[in-house]
Write a structure and sequence with these properties.
Elements: E1 10-17, E2 19-20, E3 32-33, H1 39-53, E4 57-66, H2 74-88, E5 95-100, H3 107-115, E6 120-126, H4 130-135, H5 142-155, E7 159-166, H6 173-186, E8 190-195, H7 203-209, H8 218-234, E9 238-241, E10 244-246, H9 253-259, E11 265-267, E12 272-275, E13 278-282, H10 286-293, E14 301-306, H11 309-320, E15 327-328, H12 329-336, H13 340-343, H14 345-353, E16 357-360, E17 363-366, H15 368-374
Parallel strand pairs: 1-4, 1-11, 2-3, 4-5, 5-6, 6-7, 7-8
Antiparallel strand pairs: 8-10, 9-10, 12-13, 13-14, 15-17, 16-17
Helix pairs in contact: 1-2, 1-10, 2-3, 6-8, 11-12
Length: about 375
């Protein structure tokens, strides 16, 4: 394949592994069940695409998401993860994250992760109540999460992040509190706690529209979010982003790159890239992607576009304000050539008057009320 024109060094890499045992009904990510036979060809394509960009890469973070990156067997897992490091090098790599479903984690796979250089696992716990896991369409049980966390810790994985879904249909605050207590008991370095979102086109949204699931209610969702913030912060997790909490120094470096809107390269089916004022997206279908990425004269890119300076500025603002630390307007002005304090002074003043924003010197951030609205 012929790569997109980029200039290095690119310091952040996302790799998409689209295969799953079963598609979750709330998921709108590019994921596919029942296509395991395509795995080896897909891994070859991932590594082929990586090689075309190797001269421009100096990764500080690599994040492998899905899908379920640990759905394949241990040998396949090690082949594509170790292959990425062989291609890119690891002299600057500080964070290598792989997402995992608790039902897909075993000792052999964890040791494969460690041999490949992975130092952080994001475990999709979602809930510790089996009834709510069934509602969410998850194929694992609560005990699988506990067992997976034990395996990861015993093997020596440096960092563990747990994902938790808040405000599951029919979930009470007491039940949410028990989930949070279990998370705190496991004591990961990082927690992502997202209010359940009904995304367009998902099975959940169709069920809601047909009246089979209750529609979200803002007050209820906020009550679950506020409970999560209260419990996690009391346990020593700092809220550094609207839905993300970490022990001091354990923030997700890769996701911080997204929220700060810096350059990243996306590899794999449906992956997005954002480099040098341009962005592009690969085709979604894994087989079509594999054919194009492995070809000498095809491109897996589905679309590409240039990002005008004003759009880039607004995207940096939108993403950066998700961080509790907010954004530095001097830095944004230097990067994008537009000073919001001049071009949008009336908007900033209006939102500040509504109690949504606060401007302290060059730093603009959301208030607590603003974080709720943004969420």
């Amino acid at each position: 394949m012929s790569p997109e024109p980029v200039s290095g060094p690119i310091e952040h890499v996302y790799v998409h592994f689209p295969f799953c045992a079963r598609k979750c009904p709330y998921c709108d990510f590019n994921s596919h069940a029942g296509r395991d036979a395509e795995t080896d060809v897909y891994i070859d394509a991932i590594l082929a695409e990586a090689r075309t960009y190797a001269p421009h890469m100096h990764p500080r973070t690599i994040f492998v998401g899905g899908g379920t990156p640990t759905h394949c067997d241990a040998a396949q897992l090690e082949r594509y993860l170790a292959g990425l490091l062989e291609i890119f090098g690891d002299d600057a790599l500080g964070e290598f994250t792989v997402e995992a479903n608790p039902g897909s984690v075993d000792t052999a796979k964890v040791h494969a992760l460690l041999r490949a250089g992975v130092n952080r696992v994001s475990l999709g716990a979602q809930s510790f109540d089996d009834r709510h896991l069934q509602t969410l369409g998850r194929i694992h049980a609560a005990e699988d999460t506990l067992r997976s966390a034990e395996i990861l810790r015993a093997a020596g994985m440096q960092r563990l992040s747990l994902d938790l879904i808040l405000s599951v249909p029919k979930q009470t605050l007491d039940e949410q509190d028990r989930d949070l207590a279990q998370v705190i008991d496991i004591d990961p370095e990082h927690v992502s706690a997202y209010v359940l979102t009904y995304e367009p086109g998902t099975t959940f949204t169709r069920a809601m529209e047909a009246g089979r699931l209750p529609a979200p209610v803002d007050d209820r969702d906020l009550a679950h979010l506020h409970l999560a913030c209260e419990r996690l912060q009391a346990a020593g997790f700092g809220r550094y982003e609207i839905s993300n909490f970490a022990r001091p120094g354990a923030e997700s470096r890769h996701n911080l790159a997204y929220w700060r809107n810096v350059a990243w390269l996306g590899l794999g089916a449906g992956a997005h890239s954002h480099v040098g004022g341009r962005r592009w997206k690969n085709v979604d279908d894994p087989a079509a992607y594999a054919r194009a990425a492995s070809s000498s004269d095809e491109s897996p890119v589905a679309w590409r576009e240039s990002v005008p300076p004003d759009m880039g500025l607004l995207e940096s603002l939108m993403m950066g304000l998700r961080l509790t630390a907010g954004v530095d307007l001097d830095e944004l002005t230097a990067r994008h050539g537009v000073d919001l304090r001049r071009t949008h002074a009336d908007v900033l003043t209006a939102h500040a008057a509504q109690g949504l924003l606060v401007l302290d010197g060059p730093r603009l951030s959301l208030t607590e009320h603003g974080l709720d609205v943004a969420n």
